[in-house]
């Protein structure tokens, strides 16, 4: 009976497992959820009351698209997608800061139910926190570039299924 | 929407969510228990869909926007399926955490749906 021994060696989720992408996966999941929420909400807004606040609802739709692209870029996160992730996440941070500030200074400009109004308070401030976490993740998971001095072309390492 | 069914659904989703979060943070990969809990949440959502379609014929109509209600419901139906698909593809502890997050999100969404159905304002 050699079964139990080999089974014990093959325990899948040992504490030493080197899965640096783990928390990053969580980030992607939250991004996906936010993308879904923003898409659903802007769909409702545009389908039912677009003429009430065209600016805010167009922005809502734009933010939904950006969240979707950011989610995809984080999933890919290599080469060109890495740059796309930076652009979309920066756009989100800018959006939530600008719209959040404007919605407090001049509430008439944005009705209170857009994704970025009052710094995303309708979404537990996730739209404000998420871009910052996303940027931290991107900084730490830069794809390997040939400019590093002692790093010989480790670029193909993480291309699992693209 | 039927009130007791809605609260049952919120309760199950919260329990399933907390369970999955807990087990995930303790390092469990997705298993029959956590996947089953997520499946139960999805099943109740399908039940809610049936109830919501049938209820107006029994005089129980929504007071709010049906469009918004069904956008929530359709989005909610997608979430556990997506989380479970993820858990099948990537068998890591974080997939269990994601199952938990999905279930908790369902609890919030169902509560919002209940608000749309019953009380107006906000």
Give an overview in words.
The complex is a heterodimer of chains A (162) and B (122). Chain A has a domain at 54-142. Chain A has helices at 3-9, 22-49, 54-76, 80-105, 126-140. Chain A has 162 residues and is an all-alpha fold. In chain A, 61% of the residues lie in helices and 0% in strands. The radius of gyration of chain A is 20 Å and the shape is elongated. In chain A, helix 2 packs antiparallel against helix 3, helix 3 packs antiparallel against helix 4 and helix 4 (80-105) runs antiparallel to helix 5. The termini of chain A are far apart. Helices cover 79% and strands 0% of the residues of chain B. Chain B has a single domain, classed as Four Helix Bundle (Hemerythrin (Met), subunit A). Chain B is built from four helices and no strands. Chain B has helices spanning 3-25, 32-54, 66-89, 93-118. The mean pLDDT of chain B is 91. Chain B is mostly helical. At the A-B interface, helix 2 of A face helix 3 and helix 4 of B. Chain B: This is Integral membrane protein. Chain B: The chain crosses the membrane at residues 6-27, 39-57, 69-89, 96-114. Chain B: Keywords: Membrane, Transmembrane, Transmembrane helix. Chain B: It comes from Cryobacterium glucosi. Chain A: Keywords: Membrane, Transmembrane, Transmembrane helix. Chain A: The chain crosses the membrane at residues 26-44, 56-75, 84-104, 116-139.
